[in-house]
Amino acid sequence: MTTNPETTPTIEELQAQERRLVFSRFSHEDAWVLGSLLVELARERQAPVAIDIHRAGQQLFHAALPGSTPDNDAWIARKRRVVERYGSASYLVGARFRAKGTTFEDSSRLDPDTYAAHGGSFPINVEGVGVIGAVTVSGLPQLQDHRLVVEALEAFLDR
């Protein structure tokens, strides 16, 4: 799916991404390959990001590129917790609240120091199993974080 980088994706487009970006399996090796692909994409763009892949409560991959800070790791944890709780991309969760005329922070009743429905964390959804983890990027504006993850997932799943 090609999206215009100038436009904000609709909820329907975000849901379509989740339906399309599903794994047949997800191993330690897959985490390494996907994480390395994200590092490569980020380096090409000189993006000051941190990258994280978790599966079933275990960190399988982490990288902090030049310009990233410890704050990015805190954002990663908060965005990943949204994916773990809602089973959807952190950007989609935030968009659903915005579509209702509110914000995640105002209406979720969850601690904003623990949860952040900002773009950049995407569920690792395995066919026939469900959401088993998350791949997360932090360091760019939230829509760019989301798009970087989606681009890497598309490339990984198309190989």
Automatic annotation (TrEMBL):
Pfam families cross-referenced by the UniProt entry: HbpS-like
Family in the record: Belongs to the UPF0303 family.
Superkingdom field: Bacteria
PANTHER family from the UniProt entry: PTHR28255, UPF0303 PROTEIN YBR137W (PTHR28255:SF1)
HAMAP family according to UniProt: UPF0303
Protein name: UPF0303 protein GCM10014715_69310
Protein species of origin: Streptomyces spiralis
